[in-house]
Specification:
Chain A: Pathway: Cofactor biosynthesis; Fe-Mo cofactor biosynthesis. By secondary structure, chain A is α/β, with parallel strands linked by helices. Chain A is built from 17 helices and 15 strands. Chain A has three domains: 19-140, Rossmann fold (3-Layer(aba) Sandwich); 168-289, Nitrogenase molybdenum iron protein domain (Rossmann fold, 3-Layer(aba) Sandwich); 291-441, Nitrogenase molybdenum iron protein domain (Rossmann fold, 3-Layer(aba) Sandwich). Chain A has helices at 19-28, 41-55, 68-73, 75-90, 101-106, 110-121, 140-160, 182-193, 227-232, 247-257, 270-284, 290-310, 321-334, 348-351, 362-368, 382-388, 412-441; strands at 3-4, 11-12, 33-38, 62-63, 94-99, 127-132, 168-176, 198-201, 236-242, 261-264, 314-319, 337-343, 357-359, 374-377, 391-394. Chain B contains 19 helices and 13 strands. In chain B, strand 9 (315-319), helix 14 and strand 10 form a beta-alpha-beta unit. The chains are: A alpha/beta (442), B alpha/beta (453). Chains A and B meet through strand 2, helix 1, helix 2, strand 4 and helix 3 of A and helix 2, helix 3, strand 2, helix 4 and helix 5 of B.
């Protein structure tokens, strides 16, 4: 199906989140890392504030703090200053330079600057790379995957100097997409490792943004995948990517090292979980662990219990592209009418979906989905959901009206069950409220 | 604190003084924190609730920032909409002025706002968009005010953005309208953003004293009321550093006297109300304010008693910007809390002087940001609580330090007499919470000799 757009000159209630925020998020999944946003102060302050609000954790990020004259004369002088400060004060293992729309429009060449900086400083042992993530292209999702791709490239380059590869067929590299919560990544790691595999997630936000009580403050990331594990991941016998956007980094590993890869585009619902577990069963030869057999029955039973609630119900979802696709498949299984599907930007994955998909903002969602019973989006959608009288189910980024949403699980049978129950409960409560108001007004 | 007498004001010759502001310090690459000028301009203008706020630039400047501030509205909510011209590659190459014009037309047609504020961003400033001309042309054509706000992120810090927003108000808004009825005793509040509904408590107090709040600049404001701000008899600058220039220029342009005050703490609140009455130059009003503040202070003292018992002798580290760095100290002192460390990062020289007036000699000044520095002070001075903004909240949580949020993201109103009571309660609730004991005790199996031999 083709992707549609409503024609209006202005974006009203944007759904899109800047690419650079996606880059900052990806970096949070690496241990002792520091993203440096090459732009004005706000280019790092906004993502920091928003990520802090969503994850309720301190976020590691720094800025080159560009001002007007720096942009005109020599923006890279600021970057060098920032690199010097970060390296001498905090000694991070991993540095990611994130170029913004500002450096892009001004035509700043920080890629070659970084190269010569690395040569001059003899930066051994650490990993430093740069990405270009202007906000007028893509969205959070692409920013995240492009950053992972750059990270993978840099790893390959660095390992290439160290000699040959010993493929470990019992080790799998996971590439979890940006829409997965720390809880999701944890669940996926657990599912894959329950088939006897060693798992390295790249990046791994499940150990950095899921809540920890490590004391001793550091402005670098706490938790996440350490650099030596990242390098070790190059020996993996297989890459599994979750979300179509993660196919490119997976292909990079394939092209450079010959590592085969498998992409799961959908991660939600019975079918998606069946596909994952059956795949793991096939490649490992290990029977599906009994707890997942149980969970599968739990899910089916829960869907039976809930189907009264979902019958005749319509929903709208406004999310990042991969997430939208995943949620749409889950809604399909529940028999819910999908009134409007709105993506933040266009990607091949949403273009090939069998349903009508719109690229737009939350205002489009409000207009196209008018009359829907259930509204699925980030917390920015609360007001819109209220205006059209839909029950609001928070999903995606950012979520601020709910505690612990970063630990929500949507993947696997357990995730599908949690979501089904949560959505069903919301609809049930909404129905009860309607009933109550009828009684009162008689 | 006694109100300053008129003669002293004249001596200081505030009116003839040009805004004496030192340039905002250049942020240090790799060590900078805090928002940009674009952010600052929005903080100042977004509380104008019925106006549309359109960001001219790539979508993320709006997409990453809308709905992130705690200014509450008593009615219209158009300012909570996120509007962006959403420039793409081609717009940047060929120019986005047409898109801006179309966007303004669309918003005016569909939402019929009383005014549209248009914000420039780094990218549109860099490619040289003539925003002022587009706004002027559209304003003439559509017959509604369309205000350009030239505060792209890269011109400087958040504070500078506040000032630039103030300039936009002065240039395009203030003085363009007349109040519906004459208000002889009208006062403007400048730099009060109605965070968590604080302004409503203050407005109630002012009404009780018979003082009319003429224009809110800008907490819970309507566009129209700002147009007639020049008819006020006095200005109170609540957030002193950012919008002081606005008050000074209103004094020289319209002859409106101003003073800097705060509503944090009973003493500061009383001082502010009395100063208003004094500047309004009305004997009867002064007597009424005296009666009101005395009654409120007595009632508050009574209500605070149980909290003061717990809070007396407790130590706090305060890390916040501008006016709050000194005004909250007074509030804490009234509760019996000693401030052992205070951030001066975003404070002007005047602010620092005011801090010095209010704290003891052994208070540590924390001039530069960086969470590690704040935590070090908390540890060294054995502080019981950290009071700062949301940015540092989770840093404190990781270190298991009780925390109270007093910046723009918070959900509780701490201004006025009622607010001080709320602050006291919040501080006590935070400090006595069972979590501190639970979090600091190890798991049973980690205790020494816990396993069976």
């Amino acid at each position: 199906m083709t992707v549609k757009r409503r024609s209006k000159p202005v974006s009203v209630n944007p759904l899109k989140i800047g690419q650079s925020l996606g880059g900052v998020l990806a970096m949070q999944g690496c241990y002792r890392a520091m993203p440096i946003v090459h732009g004005s102060q706000g280019c790092s302050a906004f993502p920091k504030a928003l990520l802090t609000r969503h994850f309720r954790e301190p976020i590691a990020v720094q800025t080159s703090a560009l001002q007007e004259m720096d942009v005109i004369f020599d923006a890279n002088r600021n970057l060098e200053e920032a690199l010097n400060a970060v390296l001498s004060k905090h000694r991070p293992d991993i540095i990611g330079i994130i170029g913004t729309e500002l450096t892009d429009v001004a035509g700043v060449d920080y890629q070659s600057m970084l190269k010569s900086y690395k040569r001059e400083r003899n930066m051994r042992g650490g990993l430093a790379f740069s990405v270009t993530l202007p906000d007028f292209r893509g969205s959070l999702e692409s920013g995240f995957s492009v950053t992972v791709e750059a990270m993978v490239d840099e790893l390959i380059q660095q390992a290439g100097l160290r000699g040959q590869r010993n493929v470990n067929s019992r080790q799998i590299t996971l590439l979890p997409g940006s829409y997965l919560t720390p809880g999701d990544v944890m669940e996926l790691k657990e599912i894959v490792s329950s088939f006897g595999f060693e798992v390295i997630a790249l990046p791994d936000i499940s150990t950095s943004l899921s809540g920890h009580l490590l004391t001793g403050f550091s402005p670098l990331t706490r938790g996440g995948v350490p650099l030596d594990s990242m390098l070790q991941s190059l020996q993996s016998g297989l890459t599994i990517a979750f979300g179509a956007s993660m196919e490119r980094p997976a292909r990079r590993l394939h092209n450079a090292l010959g590592t085969p890869y498998k992409v799961f585009q959908g991660t939600m619902g019975l079918k998606a979980s069946d596909e994952l577990l059956n795949f793991l069963h096939q490649i490992s030869g290990v029977p599906v662990p009994i707890r997942y057999c149980w969970q599968r029955e739990n899910l089916l039973d829960c869907m039976l219990d809930a189907h009264f609630q979902f019958a005749g119900v319509s929903a709208l979802a406004a999310l990042e592209p991969d997430h939208l696709r995943s949620v749409s498949e889950w809604l399909e299984e529940l028999g819910v009418e999908q009134k409007a599907l709105v993506a933040s930007c266009e990607t091949p994955a949403v273009a090939e979906m069998e349903r009508e998909v719109w690229v737009g903002d939350l205002d489009d969602a409000e207009v196209l989905g008018s009359g829907a019973d259930l509204w699925i989006s980030s917390s920015h959608g609360i007001a819109g959901a209220e205006r059209i009288g839909a029950a609001f189910l928070p999903a995606g980024f950012p979520i601020w009206d709910e505690l612990g949403s970063y630990m929500n699980v949507s993947v696997g049978y357990r995730g599908a069950m949690e979501w089904t129950n949560k959505a069903g409960n919301l609809l049930m409560r909404r129905e009860a409220e309607h009933r109550e108001s009828r009684v009162r007004h008689r | 604190m006694e109100p300053i007498r008129k003669e002293e004001l004249d001596d200081q010759a505030c009116g003839s003084m040009a805004p004496k502001s030192k340039p905002c310090p250049r942020p240090k690459p790799g060590e900078a924190a805090g928002g940009c000028s674009f952010d600052g301009a929005q903080i100042t203008l977004l509380p104008i609730m019925d106006a549309a706020h359109l960001v001219h630039g790539p979508v993320a400047c709006a997409g990453n920032s809308w709905e992130s501030r705690g200014s509450l509205s008593s009615g219209p909510s158009l300012s909570q909409y996120g509007f962006a011209t959403d420039l793409g590659n081609n717009d940047i190459i060929f120019g986005g002025e047409k898109k801006l014009r179309d966007s303004i037309d669309y918003i005016a047609g569909r939402f019929t706002p009383p005014a549209i504020f248009v914000y420039s961003t780094c990218v549109t400033a860099l490619i040289g968009e003539d925003m002022d001309a587009v706004c002027k042309e559209a304003s003439d054509r559509l017959g509604i005010p369309i205000v350009p706000v030239n505060s792209p992120g890269f011109v400087g810090s958040k504070n500078l953005g506040n000032r630039l927003a103030g300039d936009a108000l002065l240039q395009y808004v203030i003085g363009t309208g007349e109040p519906e009825q004459e208000t002889p005793l009208g006062v403007n509040l400048i730099g009060e953003y109605n965070i968590a509904g604080e302004m409503w408590d203050i407005e109630k107090l002012m009404n009780q004293a018979g003082i009319t709040l003429l224009s809110r600049i800008t907490g819970d404001a309507r566009y129209k009321e700002i147009t007639w701000a020049h008819r006020a008899k006095a200005n109170m600058v609540v957030c002193s550093r950012a919008l002081l220039g606005l008050a000074k220029q209103m004094e020289s342009k319209y002859g409106i006297p101003y003073f800097e005050g705060s509503f944090y703490g009973a003493k500061e609140t009383t001082y502010s109300l009395r100063q208003m009455a004094f500047l309004l130059n009305d004997r009867e009003m002064e007597r009424r304010v005296d009666r009101l503040t005395e009654r409120e202070e007595n009632r508050l003292a009574h209500d605070l008693r149980p909290y003061r018992k717990i809070l007396k002798g407790k130590k706090a580290v305060l890390y916040t910007g501008g006016v709050k760095s000194w005004s909250v100290i007074s509030a804490l002192k009234e509760l019996g809390i000693q401030v052992v460390g205070v951030g001066t990062n975003k404070s002007s020289d005047e602010d620092v002087q005011r801090i010095a007036d209010r704290v003891g000699d052994d208070t540590e000044y924390i001039p530069e940001g960086g969470a590690s520095r704040i935590i070090k002070t908390v540890r060294e001075r054995k502080a019981d609580i950290m009071i700062a903004g949301g940015r540092n909240m989770y840093v404190a949580m990781k270190e298991q330090i009780p925390f109270v949020d007093i910046n723009q993201e918070r959900h509780k109103a701490y201004a006025g007499y009622e607010g001080l009571l709320r602050l006291a309660k919040e501080l006590v609730d935070s400090m006595v919470n069972p979590i501190w004991k639970l979090a600091s005790s190890p798991a049973p199996w980690d205790k020494e000799g816990s396993y069976d031999r």
